[in-house]
Design brief:
The chain has 415 residues and is of the alpha/beta class. 45% of the residues lie in helices and 13% in strands. The chain has helices at 4-10, 45-59, 72-75, 90-107, 119-122, 127-133, 140-145, 147-153, 162-165, 167-182, 194-208, 246-254, 261-268, 273-285, 291-305, 307-320, 333-339, 351-357, 364-372; strands at residues 31-36, 63-68, 113-117, 186-190, 213-217, 231-232, 235-236, 342-345, 376-378, 381-382, 397-402, 409-414. The N and C termini lie far apart (60 Å).
């Protein structure tokens, strides 16, 4: 079995750290904490990468405290922002923290961890206590030299309020509180949190004359686009099914680029090295079969949403790609209607009208042009005729498509 430092390195999780040698992680079973933002009511797959880092630590016997930022999210992390973000009210942040905590508990099911919320120890904190017990341990000079603060304060910058400026002190206070009350000596975070994380070890050193450490993991970058992984044209890929459906989630991984799929399997699954090596060898032997993407999609969808979600997503995908007849989609019709437009019609209605009603064409003129250009299919077969025919309908439904992309499809049902 790999040591902790070896598995972290193999999975690509090592970025900046206060350890002179990452092998020092192997010397003891650490008590660590990892904080998650509550500015939204759901995690994204960018956040999920951090949870997978936590799992590696826990698999190697480390004790985890997972923090929902009920207090810090009321302030807003200025890191990576060119201007101040709008403040959200406490009720909204509280709901968000609850939603995030619920997702963390599901993804970390089977692991032993403690869930905390930093609002619990900051809600009654007075300004005087904060300034005397926390603020006095920080020097302004290194704070204003930190990249994101210097950029905002420099020429052409949007400026930074004292509220956002204080964010890093609050995160440092979290580390101190967890050090005092839970024996936490290690903070785990993403690479963009490095400067906030070191506030905690500096505070612990000055206030308690004790040593603490930071370990950060890199952000996952889409190798094909160079953009932060998990971003799509429509926005982030969420763990909440109201924002990203089971099928959309599954298909995101199916469509992962070949260049990055091995990295994604290491980051987002718990498959061990021999298994990953086998999957990648089979994938490289025949990339067209997308063996690695299929395994990745199944593993991550199961992790986040469960096996039933995998089964539904696979069947809906099979319908949309023509592997399964739409007439056989009875048990996933509800899920199919979530993915594509669904309309009612008769077995002799005009195809052009169905294209317009479903949003696959902007007008009857455009719809007729699509038909003339042989760009319309019914149940996977190209058509140029004007009307549907009774035999088009399989168990009272058909799949209408404009173009090649299965996202440009519609479910047409008799009714």
């Amino acid at each position: 079995m790999m040591k902790l430092s070896e598995e972290l390195a193999w999975r690509g999780f090592v970025n900046q750290t206060t350890f002179e040698d990452i092998k020092k992680l192997d010397d003891q079973r650490w008590t660590f904490y990892h904080g998650f933002d509550a500015s939204a009511d759901s995690l994204t797959i960018g956040n999920l990468a951090g949870v997978m880092v936590d799992k590696v630590f826990m698999r190697h016997g480390c004790k985890a405290l997972i923090l929902a930022g009920g207090a810090t999210s009321l302030i807003g992390d200025p890191g990576g922002k060119d201007s101040e973000r709008p403040l959200q009210d406490e009720d909204t942040i509280s709901r968000n923290a609850t939603g995030v905590a619920r997702q963390l508990e599901k993804v970390l099911s089977g692991y032993d961890f403690t869930l905390v919320n930093n609002l619990d120890w900051t809600r009654d904190l007075t300004v005087i206590a904060f300034l005397r017990d926390i603020g006095k341990h920080f020097s302004m000079t290194p704070l204003v030299q930190r990249d994101f603060i210097a950029r905002r304060m420099g020429e052409g910058g949007a400026g930074i309020s004292y509220t956002e400026f204080s964010y890093t002190l609050l995160q440092g206070m979290d580390f101190l509180h967890l050090f005092d009350n839970y024996g936490v000596t290690l903070e785990v975070g993403s690479s963009d949190q490095w400067t906030n994380c070191i506030s905690g070890i500096e505070l612990i050193r000055r206030a308690r004359n004790a040593e603490a450490h930071v370990f950060t993991h890199p952000l996952v970058i889409n190798k094909a686009t160079g953009k932060k992984f998990g971003k799509s044209e429509a926005g982030a890929v969420w763990l909440d099914t109201k924002k990203t459906t089971h099928t959309q989630f599954y298909q995101f991984w199916i469509n992962a680029d070949d260049e990055g799929v091995e990295e994604y399997i290491k980051v987002y699954t718990e498959l061990d090295k021999p298994t990953v090596d086998t999957v990648m060898a089979e994938h490289r032997a025949d990339p067209g079969r997308r063996i690695a993407q299929l395994r990745l999609a199944e593993e991550v969808t199961r992790l986040v949403h469960g096996q039933d979600a995998v089964n539904i997503a696979k069947r809906v995908t099979d319908v949309l790609t023509g592997k399964l007849s739409v007439g056989e989609a009875g048990d996933v019709l509800g899920a199919l209607r979530q993915e594509i437009p669904a309309i009612k019609t008769t077995d002799s209605s005009l195809i052009a009208e169905a294209l317009v009603e479903s949003g696959l064409a902007a007008s009857n003129t455009e719809a007729r042009r699509f038909l003339k250009e042989n760009a319309v299919s019914v149940n996977g077969q190209k058509v140029q005729r004007e009307q549907f025919q009774p035999e088009d309908f399989q168990n009272g439904r058909l799949l209408l498509r404009r173009g090649k992309a299965f996202k440009d499809s519609a479910l047409v049902e008799l009714g």
